[in-house]
Amino acid sequence: MVRLKAAVAAGAVGGLWALNKRLEAGGRAAAGLGGEARRFRWRNHTLAYSVAGEGEPLLLVHGVYAGASSLEFRENFEELSGSFRVYALDLLGCGLSEKPGLRYEPEDVAAQVEDFVNEEVGAGVHLVASSLTAALVVPAAVRSPKLFKKLVLVCPTGYGTLDRPSGRVGDTILGLFRAPILGDTLYHALVSRVGIRYYLEKMAYHEPAHVTDDVVEDYHRAGHGPGSKHFPASFVAGKLNLGVADLWPRVPHKSLLCWGQEAETVPLSDLGNFARNNPRSEPRVFRDAALLPYVERAATFNEEVRRFLSG
Predict the structure, then answer these.
(1) Is residue 61, in this structure, part of any structural domain at all?
(2) Fewer beta carbons within 10 Å, N or C terminal of the chain?
(3) Quick check: is 10 in a domain?
């Protein structure tokens, strides 16, 4: 009986290992933004980005979650490239960029954006960043103000949301995700089509009709492939949390604060904290939108950004 139970357990573990390997090999996100696909070498790793258009440089940096990539800006990249030289970056661990097995920290995101602008784009770039990423770029804006011209921050965290270190609980969660078999299984459940659809319909979007099968498939492809779990694991474990209360008032750039009126995970009440603590910021609230007003209200968002950056 003992041998039978051991054999069953070994078979289950082996089955999970085989399943995880099949899912891990599920492919990478297709280059769907258009423009020219390029690569940038950053600290011995390769970052992918797309570029199109002419004019003042504008950098788009996606949010942080499982399946994140620059495809998040599918409704903005081509439209804004009619007025700007638009760059859309896949952060390390996301999309078509390399996905090393690192323990990611807030400074990793700030440094990527800072170095990418400094070495690949040039000073004076406008920046659009979303949710947690919008908070993670604030240190770069403070210490290297000449690299940036104007900021557009969409539902930024850091004032009441995702603003505290996760401590030992986070260490435990991260340890679970980094475990070879159990961690892979947890992650693949998170980035299953069912899991992705739930996140998009319940948290990211206000209108579920925007969550089409094609959209789910894009996120699903972006969330798979060797090494895909490590960046989201750091996020889920709270290791990318960053409070910006001491930094945000020191940001010298004119900033547009964009919020979906129906956002819940980063509630509209957080907007007041940002607007009150930096007089160079302008709030914009988009009706019938949640965390992604640049998708759900794309035409209005694109026009607001164009007006703000060109004004």
Answers:
(1) yes
(2) N
(3) no
Q: What's the token pair of residue 130? A: 């979303």
Model pLDDT, residue 24: 47
Predicted TM-score of the model (pTM): 0.90
DSSP 155: S
In a domain, 15, yes or no: no
8 A C-beta contact, residue 84 and residue 73 = no
Task: Specify the pLDDT at position 18.
Answer: 33
Residue carrying structure tokens 């992604």: 292
Q: Which two tokens stand for residue 78?
A: 């081509």
- In whole angstroms, give the CA distance from residue 58 to residue 80: 9
How many angstroms separate the CA atoms of 59 and 309, rounded? Answer: 12
Let me know if residue 105 belongs to a domain. Answer: yes
Residue ranges of the chain with per-residue pLDDT less than 50: 1-31
SS3 (DSSP) at 267: coil
185-227 pLDDT per residue, tens = 999 999 999 999 999 999 999 999 999 999 999 999 999 999 9
Q: How many residues does the chain have?
A: 311
| Parent domain of 93 | 27-310
Burial call 108-136: b when 16+ CB within 10 Å, e when fewer: bbbbbbbbbbeebbeeebbbbbbbbbbbb
pLDDT recorded at residue 32: 72
Q: Describe the strand order of the beta sheet including 148-154 as a list of residue ranges.
A: 36-42, 45-52, 85-89, 57-61, 125-130, 148-154, 254-260, 281-286
Give me the residue label for tokens 């004004």: 311
The CATH number of whichever domain residue 56 belongs to comes to 3.40.50.1820
> Please, are residues 225 and 24 in contact by the beta-carbon 8 Å criterion?
yes
Run of H or E residues at 231: helix 230-236
Task: Please tell me the total count of domains within the chain.
Answer: 1
Say if CB 273 and CB 160 are below 8 A apart. Answer: yes
